[in-house]
Amino acid sequence: MSLREAREQLVSNVRQETISSPSAVPQKHRSEFPPDCRVNPYLTSVKGPPAHLTRTGGFRQTGCIRAHDLSVSNVTLHPRKQIAVTTSDDHLWKMWAIPGGDIIMTGEGHTDWIADCDFHPGGSQLATASGDACVKVWDFAKAACLLTFPDHTHAVWGVSWHSCGDFLASCSMDNTSKIWDVNSEKCLATLRGHADSVNSIQFLYFANTLLTSSADKTLSLWDARTGLCAQTFYGHMHSVNNAVFNLKGDTIGSCDSYGTVKFWDVRHVSPMMTVDVGPHPANRVAFDPSGHLLAVASNDATVKMIEIGTSEVTLLAGHDDAVQAVDFDKGGQFMISGGSDGSLRMWS
């Protein structure tokens, strides 16, 4: 065999080993969006107006955890367990057993305040958004940060998991939102269109639609598969701090920096109702599972409960400073709130 033939044979063998060897580094695959026609399984458990709407006074505070030394920026409940996570201006997130209040885990790694968090649909991971312009994914079994996405150029305000668990969306003070593939660890798309800070983001349950709210006074719906804006809602006169879908996905609730709360019909892209709970800023909103009640985290240290059928507003007092976040459990039996007083409070 000539030297040339030997060299060609060697190259051929190396190529075959690279392709067939089990020790070769696997390529990270790109995820595919699921079909946009699935039914939200949580809807089967939704009933009529919850009993607390027909009782005098509604919710009562049933517990309080002194969670952080600085302001609590967000609270969120585990999809299946009696567990809550708080995020804070102290750069930490903490996991709590509720209602007992025992601390389970603390996440340390961000270098600035944490603005938002969202549980993976499977409940085994947490995504966080921070003022350090990073999105992080944390794994509970490993008690460690798995991924860091540093592509935003300014503070990140919000983060939301797709229901399939393969995609993550984030929104930022850099006026953009981004969609991340957690399997390939790449940014799939950057959503451009808002003219000011994008303050919140949420995937529609079991769908490929994203909802954003912005300081440019608008809300927008986006197709996550194409990264294109599908609809824009106009009507707020001030910066929109937060916007969320109800569980059915046919109504949006939004709130702004002057305490105006609006309800929107998703199908008709039109306003349904406006409720003024100002003049203090409304920081976040959350629908109860039945869709008959909206909780508003207000800067005046109260949680305002809006009964959607009647527009009646009930105030829940208890926090010592601005309320920054609210969340309902999937059964609608209790609610949690977090505030600038560093506390996590439970209501039922």
From TrEMBL:
One Gene Ontology biological process: axoneme assembly
Keywords annotated in UniProt: Repeat, WD repeat
Record region (Disordered): 13-33
Gene Ontology CC terms: axonemal central apparatus
Extent of Polar residues compositional bias: 13-24
Pfam families: WD40
Name of the featured protein: Sperm-associated antigen 16 protein
Gene that this polypeptide is encoded by: Spag16
